[in-house]
Amino acid sequence: xxxxxxxxxxxxxxxxxxxxxxxxxxxxxxxxxxxxxxxxxxxxxxxxxxxxxxxxxxxxxxxxxxxxxxxxxxxxxxxxxxxxxxxxxxxxxxxxxxxxxxxxxxxxxxxxxxxxxxxxxxxxxxxxxxxxxxxxxxxxxxxxxxxxxxxxxxxxxxxxxxxxxxxxxxxxxxxxxxxxxxxxxxxxxxxxxxxxxxxxxxxxxxxxxxxxxxxxxxxxxxxxxxxxxxxxxxxxxxxxxxxxx
Amino acid sequence: xxxxxxxxxxxxxxxxxxxxxxxxxxxxxxxxxxxxxxxxxxxxxxxxxxxxxxxxxxxxxxxxxxxxxxxxxxxxxx
Lengths: 245, 78
Prior knowledge:
The structure holds two protein chains of two kinds. Chain A has helices at 13-24, 36-40, 64-75, 98-119, 147-167, 185-192, 196-204, 213-224; strands at residues 4-8, 28-33, 51-55, 78-83, 125-134, 173-179, 235-238. Chain A is an alpha/beta fold. Chain A has one domain (4-180, 214-238): Rossmann fold (3-Layer(aba) Sandwich). A seven-stranded parallel β-sheet of chain A has the order 3-2-1-4-5-6-7, with helices on both faces. In chain A, helix 1 (13-24) crosses helix 8 and helix 4 runs parallel beside helix 5 (147-167). By secondary structure, chain B is mostly helical. Chain B has one domain: ACP-like (Non-ribosomal Peptide Synthetase Peptidyl Carrier Protein, Chain A, Orthogonal Bundle). Chain B has helices at 3-14, 34-48, 54-59, 63-70.
């Protein structure tokens, strides 16, 4: 496949699994994340000449453009962008004050739009590029305590559709992937807050069981590849059947 | 935060109509359910930075046992 790909949320979970898969497909990657120590256990950064890590907090919206420009100056225009970074939190509505709402929107929505705005510029991306945003099955469904998470992930779906139309003239495709629960540090944290009974109930709600990172990454690499060249503006649910019941 | 303020604030967040004391078993309250458990977890996390787990919630009975779980040393003297 090859090409220059930007991946956010690269230090763990789907972002990490995807980066490993893309390196095997000869891609050059700008990996954006916060904690390099987690990454170093998985990818030998010094020996891998096609992986470039930038430690960056995406809530610093004003610094994103410089970060992207530096990579493009050194390696050329972008062929793909995958936004995996995001925060998940369970906060009941009665305690969801505006400062908390603003924080989750900064990472899950505003950073996504700012990244898209920058990478989609003609000077920054090649025609035919593919951009993929990790939404969640919660972007289409609801759950107690998830007003912030569900609404930010739903916002991604609207952003994807509108931008897909806007960028189609350059054959740039924009799609969303809506994963169900897969085993990642994010879900391990979620499960630690739940009782055994609730965990068991959640597992029972997935006809094909809880997923693995490797169940999601092939879908993303397909959407990045030319094989999906006629797919844009779509919300692709990959959830082991969770949402069909 | 003083224990009395903690109990008062918790009663407000849980919207408990009866009087809440250190000896109240929160699971005996009419209002108690899984959503209230979520409010409790968020309240404790917000004010003490303590993340209660599912098994913590399972073990907690009275407000006093909740205070023990949070750590009595985290509260100010009355």
